[in-house]
Amino acid sequence: MANIKFPEGFYWGGATAANQFEGAWNVDGRGPSVDDHFLGGSYKEPRQITIDIDPDRFYPNHDGIDFYHHYEEDIALFAEMGFNMFRMSISWSRIFPNGDDAEPNEAGLAFYDRVFDCLRAHNIEPLVTLSHYEMPYHLVEKYNGWASRELIGFFEKYCQTVFDRYQDKVKFWLTFNEINCGTQDMGNLFGTSMIQGFEGPASAVHTTSQARMQALHHQFVASGRVVRYAHEHYPQFKMGNMDCFILSYAATCDPADVFATQQEMNTMNWYCSDVQVRGKYPFYAKRFWAENDVELVMEDGDLQDIADGKVDFYTFSYYMSGTVGTHKDHEMTEGNMTFGGKNPYLESTDWGWQIDPLGLRIALNEIYARYEIPLMVVENGMGAYDEVEEDGSIHDPYRIAYLQSHVKAMGEAIADGVDLIAYTWWGPIDLVSAGTGEMRKRYGFIHVDKYDDGTGTYERRRKDSFFAYQKIIKSNGTEGLA
Ligand code: BG6
User: What's the 341 CA to ligand 1 centre distance in angstroms?
Assistant: First the structure.
């Protein structure tokens, strides 16, 4: 470890998403969001999507971990760990219950006032995702999600409403969570929500490249317009993108594998951020569209909206890396919203995600070399089974080791010269898994007494990792890394 030193004022914190932890899905005027139609699954069993909500079945996102009624306690625990940043999302359907309503829901707006005020009282800077894998379900039923161009206007109205309302409370904003998962079938399910009339296992949702690229185009235009609005009206705002960065290694040094890896990096990791950071479609897009039968429908002004909406900083999630290979014996493994090739040099989590801290340093160097704007790691963590001991303690050395190794990797990247300004661990408090809908896939430093059959008291408990992260934060990354 050479010269690890995090800059003064580095942001340390945690990241969450409204639909995975707020609960209170039908309280105070909130409308159902797309995730409220997903049942729980597991590592092996995909989540089921239902068109109607069946009162006799358990939908894990409905209650989440009830942050809605525990936010003061939870934020106090984050402050105790030393957080100076908290990433959260606003539930679109709490503000506009149907998405196309004429007026916002005041009770929903008031809830986030309370949350932001509580964060401020603890000197925690909010980092707010405008759309984290959800939209009002009505927009799915009526418009088929981002397949429709009309979503652009609804999203603009929603964003302008929250910008105007929280202009003095929030400075850092992200438009779409992991927007690049919209290039994949599975991620596409969450991000672009093109599941009009669909019922059945999430794994059976399939869309064409044409549909995915068109939906992403709508999101790029929407993102461009709201970033421009923010810059024009609120110069104090800082606007960011958010990508799921899955570093890909060539499975062998066969040039065919290296080339396939480059292609995979372009379509999965760079396509969306090239648009949102550079304000234009990348040079390789035309050939990619042509080879995948994509003909984008654009309107006059779309490219200008994209050009005007360049983000101020780049953010990403990093959990794992994968390999890309063209040979028959190339083995696959599980991953974040996608499948990747197996890497014999890496260990995996119980859910098959390959643990690769050095990959984070590589990713940070690659991203910074490409864009040279400030970076934030806004999700990183490991889902694991935790055991509560008889005395109530929870020993999670695996999570501590994951944390320490990834913090070290970030420190090394900063020493390499990367302008990294923030780190928010995914799920600092246990919450519902997006991919599987499970509670037992736990990420938290704080345990929540909530289980997959819906039982539990919601009691919060500090795990060993709570104190490990606290130590790292207190020393600004110089201690607690062993
Ligand atoms: C990211 C998402 O893909 O990974 C989060 O932004 C998600 O919403 C996280 O929860 C971890 O994935 P999972 O499926 O383990 O919850």
Answer: 19
At residue 337, does pLDDT exceed 70? no
DSSP 46: P
- Which CATH number is 258's domain given? 3.20.20.80
Domain count, the chain: 1
Residue 342 domain flag: yes
Which of 34, 190, 317 is the best mutation target for the ligand 1 pocket, counting ligand atoms within 8 Å of the beta carbon and taking the most? 317
The reported pLDDT for the residue numbered 195 is 96
Query: Does residue 463 lie in a domain region?
Result: yes
pLDDT in tens, 439-463: 999 999 999 999 999 999 999 999 9
Q: What is the pLDDT of residues 243-279, one digit of tens each?
A: 999 999 999 999 999 999 999 999 999 999 999 999 9
Q: Per DSSP, what are the bridge partners of residue 89?
A: 129
Whether ligand 1 lies within 6 angstroms of the CB of 334 is answered as no
Cα 198–chain centre separation = 24
Question: For residues 34-45, b (16+ Cβ closer than 10 Å) or e, as one string?
Answer: bbbbbbbbeeee
Average of per-residue pLDDT across 58-73 = 98
The residue ranking higher by pLDDT, 191 or 338, is: 191
Distance 238 CA to ligand 1 centre (A): 24
Global pTM value: 0.97
Please give the number of the atom of ligand 1 that sits closest to the Cα of 434.
16
Domain containing 287 equals 11-474
Q: Report if residue 2 sits inside a domain.
A: no
Catalytic residue positions?
178, 379
Q: Can you tell me which atom of ligand 1 is nearest the CA of 441? A: 15
End-to-end CA distance of the chain: 11
**129 in a structural domain:** yes
Neighbours of 315 (CB within 10 A): 28
Residue 30 has which token pair? 């909130």
